[in-house]
Amino acid sequence: MTGLGTVGGVRRYAEEANGRWVGFEHRPGDIVISTRSKCGTTWLQMICALLVFQDPDLPAPLAELSPWLDWEVEPIEDVRDRLARQEHRRFIKTHTPLAGLPLSPEVTYLVAGRHPLDVAESLFAHGHNIDRDRFEELTGRGSHPPVGSFDEWLAWWTGPGVGPDEVLDSLPGLVHHVDDAWHRQDDGEVDVVLVHYDDLTADLDGEMRRLTRHLGIDVPEPAWPALVEAATFGSMQARAVDLAPDRLGVLRSREAFFRAATSDRGGDRIAPAARDAIEARVRADADPAAAAWLLR
Q: Which residues are annotated as catalytic?
């Protein structure tokens, strides 16, 4: 362990209250969705909801069906109580890397990755969509939107000069999250499935079927078209009120949360020199195979 040390025997991260996982009792078959911000978290939650309930009309808002266990805006007792009362197969959200979770061999961990250039652009916009006053009211601590222009913020995000323990929502944090999961997927100790945002974009039906097989869920063939359609970006954007992760009103706009499902590598907004620096940093910090997977 490095950086901030440990909490409950697992790696501690300053930006995630992952100590809230300590003592949590898993059930066999639980699904934990572990992603960095803006890498497809809500998309995977929606896919899991559709596979578990096998109905595009979900029985409750997505954030209630799939609680975010380590987010400080809601008392941990309330979140654990809601999870304890759930009778369906549970699928739980976290932004904590697997190194910061008490891992169980009876759980499947879904870890999403997305090209860093797309993450950077989406994360900058998302930072301006958070109601900071409401966040402080709920948590008792302040936070700040991205400072400066996009180019200034991108330079900070690419290499903030601190480790992922202190700043997970950064390029080093993104690389650490994916690289850690990459090394665990074949170690035989826990069940880890990596999902790339580009694969969800290019072949949603195929990726949903892959996850179904891995999770051991039987979906009747006639149900597939409606389930896949409900998981498309357009359908989710149209249902932003029920699907955005905002039970307690921290987002300024739920519709803006579903900003775009693009994979255009930042478009013309990111200069070639910045692109090269970002991709070089990924290759330097990650296993070569993990870097190639993330950057493809």
A: 95
